[in-house]
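Re: [help] complex structure
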Amino acid sequence: MTLTACGGTGSTSNTPAPTPTPANVTVKVGNPSKPVTLMEDGSSLVLPYLQKMVDPIKADYANITLAPAAGGSGKGISDAISGAVQMGGSDAYLSDAQAAQNPDILNIPIAISAQSVDYNVPGVDSLKLSGDVLAKIYMGKITKWNDPAIAGLNSGATLPATAIVPVRRVESSGDTFIFTSLLNATNTDWQNGPGFGTTITWPAVPGEVTAQGNPGMVQVCKQTPGCIAYIGVSVRSTAQQAGLGEAMLQNKAGQFVKPDIANITAAVTAKASSIPTDLRASLIYADGAQSYPIVNYEYLVLKATQSDADTALAIRSFLTWAIDQKKGATDTNLQAVNFVALPQTVVPRVRAAIAKVSP
Amino acid sequence: MSRPAGGRGLPSAAPGPAVLSARGEEAVGDRALRYFCVAAAFVPIGLLLVLTLVMLTSAWPAIVYSGAKFVTGTVFTFGNLYGGTPTVHNGVSAPHNAQYGAAPLIVGTLLTSVIALAVAIPVSVGGVLMLVERIPHRFQAGLSIFLELLAGIPSVVYGLWGIIIFGPLLAHYVSPVLVRVLGFIPIFRGPVGSGQGLLVAGLILAVMVVPVIAATTRDLLRTVPILHKEGALALGMTRYETVKVVTIPFIRNGIFAAALLGWARALGETMAVLMVCGNALNIFPYNIYAPTITIAATIAAYLDGALTDATGMAVRALAEAGLLLLIITLLTNSLARVIVRRTSGAALPVGRGF
Amino acid sequence: MALRSWRSIQDLLFWALCALALCAIVGPAVWIIVGLLRDAGPLLNSRLLTHDTLHLGLQNAILGTLVLAFGVLVVAGPVGIGAGIYLAEFASGRVASFVRTFSEVLAGVPSIVVGYTGYVLLVVQFHWGYSIVAGILALVTIVTPYIVKTTEVALRQVPDNLREGAIALGLTMVATLRKVLLPPALPAIITGLVVALAISTGETAPLLYTAGFSDRNPVPALTHQPIGYLTYIAFTDIQLPDQSAHQLANAAADVTLVFLLVLIVVGRLLAIQSARRTARMNL
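Output below.
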């Protein structure tokens, strides 16, 4: 079992330090000797994905009962740290400070999600946007759809003079985290101002509206002409049915791409070699002509040292099973929430982390 | 030997019978009852003390950090939770650029609750009067059920209804009318907003507070002696005048008591308000349609994000906000009692029974 | 006669406004309820009772809500009524004022603060984990002030001449309460209990932080076992991408209301019984 430590402090900035891929690690899995309930709570984005795994994992390992719940990413992390649950679901990895405070906590990515920027502008079928323009919209500096900055990206398109209504999430959410991460990476005023996080202090923009949850964002955007909203891909079909347009976002290479599976995977692969050992990696604004700029890992946060061998075995077995494309990460499960499976470039590192769960 | 005092304005005391045995002792059952009731009465006190203590110990560093700026400052931000050098005030270290100024939250809390009660009290009392006095008996039971049913609708359902139906309705149809009719008053003027703001939040709160006041008022109305009402009618009073002179004074104290509870509920409501208030942390509402936020909604919205603050200051700031709300509840509660005592004049014998 | 017709107009106006107020109360209620029923649509069948929340049913949530409601009734009921009796019958002005203020301020604590305090104290510090007892205690904290208030108001509405009669007859306090004071006050006290239970059934935030959630039926363990409840589904499933999840959320809200309806009807029947006894007193 060879584990090569990566250079750096685990910081998640955009400086790629290519780390050698660890050899494929053997993880000890198996059915625990007594019934174990793996309680999970946290992100509501990863919840439906985990819910689909409850019955199949019971079929494969009779003594493992998965009990997923919601409650928010922050709660998931906090519960995993306090031990109220075995695993916390989170759309965001632990911050540097939190990771330093809790060195025993592992961040295990189990799937990949993405986010689209949707709009409700009648008559506009295709739209190109950049992170910089989005930051200005959400700061109130760009207020109309026919603003020169937007027109500049969309040469040839006729944009109406209607007011832009930015929609944002009212509660703490991983979607806010990844959206503001893009704004943070592409606009210096935003970086020095609101910054990024699951919860930020949004600049006051006249006419702005709030929504709760991704379906809420779709609903509010649907009933507000001129709106623009950041919406997780798990509700992509709902957004389409609601008649919302999906913008093409400009990536780091300057290309405009949509959150299709190929573009999402491209972003992950571009960042795969620089993923640190502790797996706390941002996939935002990745290099590569095809990479979609708003992509993130879905994490399960858990303690490396468990209270007993059976629980540790159950956790290792579940995690290995969950990232296996033939077991947990099947196409049916993934498509239900529009997630993408961990690419093979990343799986060995994840398995290396799973192997750390002991006794 | 115990003599419960009671003190409800009767010239002689002892409204509770102090029945003594031949040896001058209180009956065993009575003593047990008294102990139980005293113990029970101190449960709410104990619960509140526990809550306050936990909040205080959690909030202390945040109180030191912000000082008086918590109440006067207008910027509330957790700062950069993912990097940057910590900001230090008064020896307490918080995330980079963290500021906890809650003045807009205080204003939002008070304004939404005032709107809620200003609407809920007349609507509850008027609606229940209609229900009990005028609606034929066979329909009374059916309609009456709605009062308690309203109390049980989950607040998230109210919030969703507010966002999808009530808010847009208000923004498109009602608010423009308000602007035209009442536009001469500054707060009713100006942009009608998006359907998420002070007015919607206040009205949704009103809908949630109505059952608290209405259910109690309904039961109170049934205790008004028929003799009194018939006497008033015999004197030639219209039914309205009967209500004004006989019914309302009889139950006024009870309504006030229920209204105090409704006020507390309005101050502390989280989910429904959060979804329709517009979540504007750092601005004061410039008119009645403008976005705002309340202390309770802030805590509900930001608690999850606060849990990711490694310094713990974010949670502490929210705990401080919770303490502030407690103080506001206490102050407004006392204020309301003082006002009512001043304006109520001599207590009428009506309502004491004779 | 001008005065007479002005008074008639006043009368008419007043009752017209009251009618409007009644519509303002019943209108939103009907609107919301109809919306809930419509949006739950295809899921409103017996499957809700037989399957758990992972399989488009609500069995565990219904049982969980029942268990929590029972717990609240059993704990907050006696405490609230006892405290109300204390305030109405036993306490002197100062102490009563003190207790009353505390109770009212308690009603103003946001439910999420109660929930988070419960989490910090009971779930983490006392090591109870997500548990039934933590959930019940959180709900009791929220709900007790309502029971205290309605009990006190109900008892105070009973005229003092009845109390004087009881003293004259030499009744003990227990007997006075049982035979003289509680019967006329009972309808209002029951209403208070129903409203309190209604509020507790509609709460999500405090339970999220104390009871957690479980997709399986409640286990007879007071600690370390989370429990499911209907409002969690109403709150969480509405944020999930699936259409069937939204329907389940609405169905959960519908079942909550049905549960409330049963509660209200039972309460109403009990109140009618005691109202009959009071009528014999010729108040």
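Chain C has a mean pLDDT of 89.
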